[in-house]
Amino acid sequence: MLKKLIGGLNKRKVKVFSLFLICSFLAWFLSNLSEPYESRANFNLNYKNLPDTLLLGNDAVNSIEAKIRTSGFQFLYYNFSNKRVDVDLSQVEYRNGNYILTEDAVKKQMERQLSQSISLIDLDRDQLEVNLYQVASKEVPIKADIDLQFKQNYILNGDLKLSPDKILVKGPKAEIDTLTAIYTSKVEMTDLSSDFSENVLLVFPKSLNNSIFATNRTNVSGKVDKFSEKVFDIPIQVLNFPEGYKVNTFPNSITVLCKATIDQLKTITSKDFEIVADYKQLNGSNGNELFLEVTKKPEKVHGVRLLENKINFVLEQE
């Protein structure tokens, strides 16, 4: 019984001693953290305010090491998290083929962003060399890579519309000079029977590593209408027949099938078409057939088709 009592007291003394030891250590630790220290810390660089004629290269320096004086509490913060500082590139200088910011310019920018409790002593370099390069710019057309499939008796009325239909590209002149167009990602639409509009991502060439693009998508839209067909009987005109002869064709008119929207067909007449047979196409042969060509048709119709593409003829001397 006595041994148990002594053992319990000893355990209690150990716990009390350990508690006082921990408290003493914490007090000492906090006291030391409140003291000023000099040490080095890393800062991540965030470049901003690039001049319009320059671009930041892929190999740009992304961090800088600085010697600072501050309390131990602040150093704990920097050890657990790298601090970010903005670097204003509007002050960049061009020297001996390189773009640089002097140590003094970088220090002034950093000091404005650091807490008043932090003193910046020096940097790990006497100047910050920034990987910049001269850029050119040009507008490049955007082209749609799109597959449209319509329901029966429906068509695209007019052209596809892209918004924007051009994109501004900035980069090294030798790089962007090779660019003639930017295509959208592949889009497939099926069973279309109504107007459509869709935002589509653009596909950029992988070879343009140092170029930037004003946007990464465009809107593709189109108007869809129901169509019908109508036939028109059109007289045939024969051109370039021999002087002193006249040409009789069999038949002297031809049927044309026109595919268009219902509203369009209401306004189309046979005068909107012109069918020509050119005698020169015989090239001196003794054939008696002339091929036909549609030389005039209504604008923006979906299709015009000759039901016969050749005719017989007879030359008669006048």
Automatic annotation (TrEMBL):
InterPro entries the UniProt entry points to: c-di-AMP_regulator (IPR053154), YbbR (IPR012505)
Name of this chain's protein: YbbR-like domain-containing protein
Stored Gene3D superfamilies: 2.170.120.30, YbbR-like domain
Pfam families membership: YbbR (PF07949)
